[in-house]
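Workshop exercise sheet. Pairs work together: one partner reads the sequence aloud, the other fills in the structure field after running the prediction. Swap roles for the next sheet.
Pair: D.N. / O.F.
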Amino acid sequence: MKAKKEQAVGKAKEAAGRTVGNERLTAKGRAEQVKGDAREAKEKIKDALEE
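Structure field:
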């Protein structure tokens, strides 16, 4: 659940950064999306190992 939230917040920040031309905000949004993707992958691996 936390992974999806990070991905959504990251997408929103990236979009906002692009809209206003703020490269730092765009990069921060991308980084949050990557963090969410990594967390999601970790959760999937953990679930697979538990089965």
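Discussion prompt: The mean pLDDT is 95. What would you look at next?
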